[in-house]
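hey can u check if this looks right to u? its 128 residues, i copy pasted from the old doc so theres a chance i mangled smth
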Amino acid sequence: MVKRLTSYSTLKHVADRSHVLEIIDKMSADIIQQFAPDAEEATLDSTGMETSSMSAHYRTRSGKSRKKYMKFSLCVLVGSMFPAGLVISWAPYNDKREARPLLAKAKMVTQPQRLFAEKGYPQCCPLK
């Protein structure tokens, strides 16, 4: 039986001190090379998560501030939905901040002909 709950950021702490992201990158590359080597389209997007269970409404009314926020940026191959790149950061930044490292990771894995992204990503970061 679990005597205490794990930290809300356990996954991030594990990722920081080990080679989890490198392992994920290698696994993604192997999967794509085996199952989708000729992917023609990829897409970029990001999402974020609060690291507390406090609702935005309660936080606003109580005057408390956000403590931590995790952002996941991902490049996915269209059609197969295989991840071609992953970048994790701690703060709620604009998508442009993770665009270059994300595209660099994706470039090592695949070279699609078309890249789909929303306006938050700069036009100056082509995949090719």
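The mean pLDDT is 82.
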